[in-house]
Input
Amino acid sequence: MLPSESRLRRREDFATAVRRGRRVGRPLLVVHLYIGGTTAEPANPHGAGGNFLPARAGFVVSKAVGVAVVRNRVKRRLRHLVAERIGDLPAGSLIVVRALPSAAEAQYADLARDLDSALRKLSASSPTGAGQ
Output
């Protein structure tokens, strides 16, 4: 289960990850990663008063993926996959995982493979996000 402090809830957090972060597309999903610091969200209600915010994740599963039952299944699978990997992300980073319509028919292992591939690609690129 993804801990409460590791979840993206605010629209501004999603927008920051999507607009200012790096993006990698895969056949089943698109992953946006913004590696922020402690100053990324100064008025963050999830900050525990410390200098380091935890990595936080959010999910976008649109109606194009399928009916509500299918969307919820895809979202549950993605949450579980990200929960296993969120500790490997830098503190203060924001990750948004957007499921593509092909994720509806995908197996759990296929989603894991695409997520791992996207995270490897994002971690191999420059951590500072040149041009931002």
Notes: The mean pLDDT is 86.
